[in-house]
Amino acid sequence: MGRGSTMRRVSKWGSVMAGVSVALLVSPNAAHAAPPVMTASQAFAGWSVPTHAQAAARASIPSEVLQALVRLRTSTATPSQADQRILANHHDLAVAFSPGSVEVSTASGPSRQVSTAVQAAAAGPGCGWQEGTLTRKTGWPDYSVEYKWRSHLDTCWSGSKVTRINNQYTYVTNQQYGWAYRGVSSSSVGAAGYWSLHDYQQGHMEYCVFKYGCLQDLYPAVSITQYGNGTASYSGWKTG
Known about the structure:
With 240 residues, this protein is an alpha+beta fold. The chain has helices at residues 2-31, 40-43, 52-59, 63-73, 81-87, 91-97, 116-121, and strands at 101-110, 126-137, 145-157, 162-173, 179-189, 196-209, 213-218, 221-227, 232-238.
């Protein structure tokens, strides 16, 4: 009986080891498994919440193209030759997914909105404009400016307070194909007669491509604060 028990134990352990051996042979293949295929909702994670039309447009993109776009967005390297071939006929989508950059800048100058007589009536030593610009650039394949969104504020001041709002507006320049400016989505402008005047503007940019439709929304924004001595400050930049 002792030998029989020993044989059974050896047989049992032999089965276990065989299982381990099989597992070791299989695991290297698992390491080379293809990455999971992303759905449209996963591929567009981090983008604006889509409207029904945008969700339908995103879902209509072929899976092969979508996977190449995800690889483009998540890598800093130039796309592989295979992905470049896939994206060759989807240039507009590549522009949207390309990991580009956003730059902000400011400018100012003498008022172009009011005459000398109006400036004198404003009881101030000066009138002038302030402008904040948000420039969006794409990476591969264009490496170019996609648009420049601008917020413009023109005022007069007395030295101790802002005396007059001459003009305030937003506009877009250097706008490339696919980008549409839908106007101001949020706005708040203070009143003249105080030491400072706060102006907040948020625009609405939408990206649309001919074959699929509109895909995403961006909301560039900036706050401009004009002071009664003619100086100004900028804050609250939003890239989208």
